[in-house]
Design a protein that fits this description.
Blueprint: H1 14-21, H2 28-36, H3 45-56, H4 59-63, H5 67-70, H6 78-101, H7 108-119, E1 126-132, E2 138-146, H8 156-165, E3 170-176, H9 186-200, E4 206-212, E5 217-219
């Protein structure tokens, strides 16, 4: 692993392995090494990639790390951090664009993948609104509120105003739990009821409330919690 990649057997070199067998055949470290491009004296790009994954624990934390944290790893600089950030942003934009071209119900996993990529690894809590048109295609994903590591102040009136201004026909809301536990709190359940009923008044259905963490995902709709009975 520490010898230059050019000295490895051809079929074991990350770029050649990707070409022969496809991206899924590569480990996280091998994929990361392709972006790093070169190693440093005594370490291949794959070895450096292993160092990064060890330092940050997993890919989501690596992708959302600050440049000051990244460059603390030997052999890493702002150029490599920028390359990884650019690749990560392309993934998020690609997933968001797909949601704009297809109904959110044609591939529910795309919503999950998009939300996990966008907010799953953030160290602070954010609240997103996904505004949908009459075909349930994404009009826009908006970060509407941002809070501390424990809570976000969410104002239903603002959500209604933003949804109406975009002529949204339906809505999905989402927020993250930096604690790592995606299960809804009592406050999350109460907020969902308030939003559901408020949006009903303007004939905009709330289709789902998703909670995302670094390694977990919870959907109110999938769990049957969107069947809210009027009082």
């Amino acid at each position: 692993m520490h010898s230059p990649i050019t000295e490895w057997p051809k079929h074991e070199q990350p770029r050649e392995k990707l070409r022969l067998y496809g991206a899924k055949a590569l480990t996280d470290a091998e994929l990361l090494a392709i972006f790093l491009r070169v190693g440093v004296k005594g370490k291949s790009a794959v070895s450096l990639a292993h160092d990064l994954l060890h330092q940050f624990g997993n890919l989501p934390r690596l992708m959302t790390c600050k440049p000051t944290e990244f460059i603390q790893v030997h052999g890493m600089g702002l150029s490599k951090w920028s390359q990884i950030q650019a690749a990560y942003e392309l993934v998020k934009r690609s997933l968001e664009e797909q949601l704009g071209q297809e109904s959110v119900f044609s591939s529910p996993s795309q919503v999950k993948e998009f939300l996990q990529a966008k907010i799953g690894a953030l160290p602070h809590e954010v609240f997103l609104c996904l505004y949908l048109d009459s075909r349930l295609h994404l009009i826009e994903c908006q970060e509407l509120f941002r809070g501390s590591i424990t809570q976000t102040a969410v104002y239903p009136r603002e959500i209604l105003k933003e949804a109406l201004s975009r002529n949204a026909s339906a809505l999905i809301v989402a927020h993250n739990h930096p604690s790592g536990n995606p299960l809804p709190s009592e406050a999350d359940q109460e907020l969902t009821k308030i939003l559901f009923k408020a949006l009903q008044l303007v004939d905009i259905p709330l289709l789902d409330h998703c909670i995302v963490s670094g390694s977990g995902f919870f959907s109110f709709s999938d769990s049957g919690l969107m069947k809210i009975e009027p009082k």
